[in-house]
Structures are given as C-alpha cells and as structure tokens.
Design goal:
There is one protein chain. The chain has one helix and seven strands. The protein is mainly beta. The strands form two sheets. It has a five-stranded antiparallel β-sheet, with no helix packed on it. The chain has a two-stranded antiparallel sheet with strand order 1-7.
C-alpha cells in the first residue's frame, strides 16, 4: 500500500489564521508518536518543538517534500 508521508526536515508554514504562530516557518520533525496525540505532528521553530495538527500547517515545497512509501 502506498502511503503519503512528509519528508523529515521539510519546510512548513503555520497556515491556521487562528493559531498563535500563524505564518511562522519551521521544520517538520515527524508525527508526535505519543498516546492520545496520534493526530499531531512535531514541528521545530527556532530550536523549540511544537505539536501541531495537520490542519495547522502547510508544506512550502510539497512537490519535493511528500514521499510515497
């Protein structure tokens, strides 16, 4: 089965206008992998990792940062 996944280190931008970090740029660090937070992703901003839902961020370069495993 082919499943899309985001390349680690991909550049992302917070696109949710109601999020406190709206328009901030960061690096994708992978899924949260914590019980109860399976729908969250780790994104690094200036050395600090934040948990974001998939609806909160977008890839800056989706053509190179989406993998098909």
């Amino acid at each position: 089965m082919n499943q899309q996944s985001i390349r680690l280190g991909a550049e992302v931008r917070v696109c949710n206008a109601t999020h406190s970090m709206h328009q901030h740029l960061g690096r994708y660090m992978g899924p949260a992998e914590l019980p109860g937070l399976e729908n969250r992703h780790r994104v690094c901003f200036d050395g600090k990792v934040h948990l974001l839902s998939e609806d909160d961020f977008e890839l800056l370069y989706p053509e190179k940062d989406i993998r098909h495993d």
